[in-house]
């Protein structure tokens, strides 16, 4: 981690390599990653799939039964527009029988991937069945009423609706949220965590209007990606302020100088709480939540800064992947040559000055 009061930060070669990350890994390694990601996504998307399905309340375990019945036209989604239960878990080889109630008009059962489909009928007692031989997650809808939330899913075998990793991340995020709410309970300008993920540098005002004067950090709480540099910039209002992390991870000097900056690079995921020592009791507190890097969303800009210029840190695979991607792209090939020239010729990289 790097921490500075009013200093500059150099952008090293690792920044460029991380920027190229999507194209740097090629061949079988990329294929393996893609296949694993696809498999995990197919098994863990049920909460999203059922986000507008009112009668979904988890996966009902029906394993150990050779035939399972699901009601079509069950009460749900503002009428008789549900499958009951909406999601079930069965063993491979199980036959699922959908049975119509006759309520809610005409319904059908159509798999999202086209692997099975019933006719569109409204007759009470009508049935349709399908045997699930292979493990996986099978999602389906009623075509006329999918927009209302009439959706279902069959989880076959050991497939799960949420991986242990996702569960841990969800629990961690929940606990982080509670911790932030408690920490900032007397901070008047806190109402939510401002999402700044995907940005290389994020600026927070020191001495913004809050807590009965110029006694706030603005915004009070931010979410950033690992590798992001947070810059605190003094407004010059409210007297002397400082930025002190509660566990001593970082600490600025105490000053009232307008335009003074202090920065810290957050390279590890976690929740970091801090305060202005002289004004902590009035609510001048802040928080930085560092989330694991994702796709960056619409805020994605340039790669995160790193000071270590050693290309060797990435190992042979990264170098080979970068070279392979460079062959396929003239632009990347130029960058690759630039990186190699620096390794032997001492090319100077531009500096990013503190604001």
Automatic annotation (TrEMBL):
Keywords: Copper, Electron transport, Membrane, Metal-binding, Periplasm, Transmembrane, Transmembrane helix, Transport. It comes from the Archaea. Its cofactor is Cu cation. InterPro entries: Amicyanin/Pseudoazurin (IPR002386), BlueCu_1 (IPR000923), BlueCu_1_BS (IPR028871), Cupredoxin (IPR008972), Halocyanin (IPR017533), TAT_signal (IPR006311). Its main location: membrane. PROSITE patterns: COPPER_BLUE, TAT. It is found in: Membrane; Periplasm. Binds 1 copper ion per subunit. Cu cation binds at residues 241, 276, 279, 284. This is Halocyanin. It comes from Haloferax profundi.
């Amino acid at each position: 981690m790097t921490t500075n009061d009013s200093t500059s930060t150099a952008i090293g070669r690792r920044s460029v390599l991380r920027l190229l990350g999507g194209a740097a890994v090629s061949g079988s390694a990329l294929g393996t990653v893609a296949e694993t990601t696809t498999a995990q996504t197919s098994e863990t998307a049920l909460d999203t799939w059922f986000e507008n399905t009112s009668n979904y309340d988890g996966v009902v375990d029906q394993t150990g039964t050779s035939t399972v019945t699901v009601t079509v036209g069950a009460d749900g989604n503002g009428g008789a527009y549900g499958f009951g239960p909406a999601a079930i878990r069965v063993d491979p080889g199980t036959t699922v029988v959908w049975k119509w109630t006759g309520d809610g008009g005409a319904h059908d059962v159509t798999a999202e991937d086209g692997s099975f489909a019933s006719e569109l009928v409204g007759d009470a007692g009508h049935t349709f069945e399908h045997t699930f031989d292979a493990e996986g997650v099978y999602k389906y809808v009623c075509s006329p009423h999918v927009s209302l939330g009439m959706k279902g899913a069959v989880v076959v075998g050991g497939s799960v609706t949420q991986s242990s990793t996702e569960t841990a991340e969800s629990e961690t995020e929940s606990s982080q949220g509670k911790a932030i709410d408690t920490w900032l309970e007397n901070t008047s300008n806190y109402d939510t965590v401002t999402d700044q993920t995907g940005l290389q540098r994020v600026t927070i005002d020191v001495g913004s209007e809050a807590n009965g004067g110029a006694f706030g950090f603005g915004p009070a709480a931010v979410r950033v990606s690992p590798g992001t540099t947070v810059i605190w910039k003094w407004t010059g209002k409210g007297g002397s302020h400082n930025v002190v992390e509660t566990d001593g991870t970082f600490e600025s000097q105490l000053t009232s100088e307008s335009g003074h900056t202090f920065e810290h690079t957050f390279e590890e995921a976690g929740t970091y709480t801090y305060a202005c020592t002289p004004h902590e009791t009035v609510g001048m507190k802040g928080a930085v939540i560092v989330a694991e890097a994702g796709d960056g969303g619409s805020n994605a800009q340039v790669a995160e800064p790193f000071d270590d210029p050693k290309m060797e840190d990435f190992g042979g695979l990264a170098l080979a992947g970068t070279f392979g991607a460079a062959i396929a792209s003239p632009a990347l090939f130029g960058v690759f040559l630039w990186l190699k020239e620096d390794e032997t010729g001492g090319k100077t990289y531009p500096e990013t000055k503190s604001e």
